[in-house]
């Protein structure tokens, strides 16, 4: 029984991080759905835009996998232990660095796609509502997750230092 994972001792922020990561994963799976019928059946420029946006979607999907795996890693490792676990801290730090790099690239890419959308020739199609909020969610969600992961990492680092001093 002692070897079982005790869910009650796990920090609630880990659960929040996991939930946000799963939401972001599902979001990236459905990111292209509202655009499919509209852009695929539109003009040549809207079809080209759709194909370019798929590359961004794949990038976001890969980022979501990194964040989900990082969150699961937080959940299954000894986050509530008093001992310092440098491997855990280093691995979570690496996940954060990878996620931050992905977010920075998205920060530079998404505004470009919003501008491209505003310059599209829709032909006889009625333009969709402004997609900027939907596209900006691809930056906001992973940023929240990385902030939570950093909080988890620093909390674990501070708790383990206190635990080491008390022993």
Give the beta-strand count: 0
Quickly count the domains. 1
- In which range does the helix fraction lie? over 70%
Strand content: under 5%
Transmembrane segments: 12-39, 59-79, 86-114, 134-154
Keywords: Membrane, Transmembrane, Transmembrane helix
Which key terms come to mind for this protein?
167 residues, mainly alpha, 5 helices, 76% helix, 0% strand
List the helices and strands and how they pair.
Layout lengths: L11 H18 L3 H8 L3 H33 L9 H33 L13 H35 L1
Helix pairs in contact: 1-3, 1-5, 2-3, 3-4, 3-5, 4-5
Keywords: Membrane, Transmembrane, Transmembrane helix
Give a written overview of the molecule:
This protein is an all-alpha fold. The protein has one domain. 76% of the residues lie in helices and 0% in strands. It contains five helices and no strands. The radius of gyration is 20 Å and the shape is elongated. Mean pLDDT is 75; it is low at 163-167. The chain crosses the membrane at residues 12-39, 59-79, 86-114, 134-154. Keywords: Membrane, Transmembrane, Transmembrane helix.
Brief account:
The chain is an all-alpha fold. The chain has helices at 12-29, 33-40, 44-76, 86-118, 132-166. Mean pLDDT is 75; it is low at 163-167.
């Amino acid at each position: 029984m002692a070897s079982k994972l005790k869910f009650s001792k796990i920090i609630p922020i880990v659960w929040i991080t996991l939930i946000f990561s799963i939401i972001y994963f599902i979001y990236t799976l459905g990111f292209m759905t509202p655009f499919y019928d509209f852009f695929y059946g539109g003009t040549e420029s809207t079809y080209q835009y759709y194909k370019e946006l798929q590359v961004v979607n794949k990038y976001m999907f890969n980022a979501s996998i990194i964040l989900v795996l990082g969150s699961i890693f937080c959940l299954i490792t000894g986050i509530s232990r008093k001992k310092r676990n440098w491997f855990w801290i280093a691995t979570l730090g690496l996940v954060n660095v990878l996620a931050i790099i992905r977010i920075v690239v998205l920060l530079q890419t998404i505004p470009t796609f919003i501008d491209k959308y505003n310059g599209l020739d829709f032909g006889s199609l009625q333009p969709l509502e402004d997609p900027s909020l939907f596209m900006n969610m691809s930056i906001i969600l992973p940023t929240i997750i990385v902030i939570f992961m950093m909080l988890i990492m620093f909390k674990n680092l501070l708790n383990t230092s206190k635990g080491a001093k008390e022993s």
